[in-house]
Amino acid sequence: MGAVLLRRSVRALVVLLVLSILISGLTHLIPGDPATIIAGEQGSPELRAQIRTQLGLDRPFLTQYLDWLGRVLHGDFGTSLMDSRSVGTMIGDRLPVSLQLAVMATVLALLWGVTAGILAATYRGRLLDVVLNGGAFVGVATPPFVVGTLLVLLVSTVAPAWPVLSYVPFGEDPVRNLQAMLLPAFVLSIPFGAALCRYLRSSIVEIQSQDFMRTAAAKGASRWRMILRHATRNALVPLLTATGLQFGVLVGGTVIIEQVFGLPGLGSLIVNSIVQHDFPVVQAAILTLGATYVLLNLLVDLLYPVVDPRIRVTGVSHGR
Amino acid sequence: MVAELEPSTRRRRPPASLVAGAVVIGALVALALWVTLFGRYGVNQPSDAILEGPSGAHWLGADNLGRDLLTRVLVAGRTSLLVAAGATLLAALIGVPIGLVAGYRGGPADSALMAFVDTALAVPPVLLALTLVAVFKPGVGTLILGVGLIFTPYFARLVRGPALSVREQDFVAAARISGVGGSLIMLRHVLPNVAAPVIVQLANTAATCILIEASLSYLGLGVQPPQPSWGRMVSEGQRYMQETPLLVIVPCVALVLASVALGLLADGLQKRLNPRR
Known about the structure:
The structure holds two protein chains of two kinds. Chain A is mainly α. Helix content of chain A is 78%, strand content 0%. Chain A has helices spanning 2-24, 26-29, 34-39, 45-55, 61-73, 87-122, 127-141, 144-158, 174-208, 211-218, 223-234, 236-261, 266-275, 279-307, 309-314. Chain B contains eleven helices and no strands. Chain B starts with a helix and ends with a helix. The A-B interface holds A 11, 14-15, 18-19, 22-23, 26, 29-31, 137-138, 140-146, 149-150, 153, 156-157, 247-249, 251-253, 255-256, 259, 270-271, 274-275, 279, 282, 286, 289-290, 293-294, 297 and B 118-119, 122-127, 130-131, 133-137, 207, 211, 214-215, 218-221, 231, 234, 238, 241-242, 245, 248-249, 252, 255-256, 259-260, 262-263, 267.
């Protein structure tokens, strides 16, 4: 198990390193003269020269990258091209909003996705299964911004008092904050939970045909005991894998949902900075999101032995 | 292979999901063509019917510039499907050869290619897409190229495994002994054996591409105006949705319809080509 973890950690580091090379190379990839594009057609030559120095475009890529990486490792992300604010502070202000959104969405997705998956597997082939499975199919195929927009429209018509587009920090007013975050988190949980429901249903169905399930039935275990204790427990490992895979969808979804609901998170920072060609901010924000994603996946790897004690002993899982 | 053992599978009726998906996609393409060739209005043709509801002149109403909503949503479908198809084909055209070579040749080439593929797979697609649009001018070309490159590793990964196992089969050894060259073996013997999963993956990728394109266009980083796209129509319609809800509902419904249809297509193809799973 220790060796596996070490390998995963090294891999996570490699992924982050490649991502950082790609991101810091961004400014070098801009077709034409980046300084002109960033400063705009009317930008003065002094401004262009300043941007060139600030982005390190006057130096070779490798030198610039190593310099940037060194500063990033010391927590210095540089300053914004727009208003010279510290990029680190901007990220620090916005990361908690995105994290709260992602955590709330994950909790919601696990709550209803797992319930729906178990119910669909239990009532396989019956009406409930058809409805849940069909709903999950559409849920996976619907982008969050569509549900989000339609939900904003619905809520503002049906319940105008609900704070849809008015974000308040948690420290200021916890109740209003949770109220404002509930809808976006729910919308974000739809493709996530739908995917979990489909994974869980198919792995429980697969487990149900195994020998130990027949044994459990023969010794008189009740139907729910069989489903919950024997089938679902063995389906936890594939469920964990599915959750890890869905974090990618979640990270992408936060970027979009923040825009729909006007939340001041990392995602809206990325979008605004791309529009304004504020590259230091884009680089740092994308790298932060990427690092969060890699860390979340590492966390999933750490959870495997907790969920399936067999992994702790042998390092391999029998539940696939 | 299965078809030869059971001749009946060839004549079996195609799964309902395959038919439903194909019909919806076919209808969207046909309608887009029809509205381009014979439509009463141009895509960006303004009129006095500003923010008006459905009428005889404008079946689904008109937007804030009085442009016909029906015309716009159908033409937008053309753009979305074009981006999805283009990006998917690009991903397959680059990814499949990479996977074939990696799987068939094995050795250091395989390790190097797969290390690259695994790293690319470990980054969320939307994050990669945002990175690319941050650099290149947003538009249809950038979308096809960017989204296509993002999904290339998925095809390489998919083809590599089967290519690896086909390589060990007797008929490949026989071909090699009779002096057939490596590329010809890959083309004639390995490729047909990995075709089924690749076709399913084509539909799956197209379904994801259409969502990514719509999301980026919604953020203003995808298809650029005046070219209509579903994502862009939703973000533009949001400002007026309290008075004219159809402005957002129509493109939303069209997008979900196309995305679900592509999903059904993938599901049906999977059942049809790979009935055992």
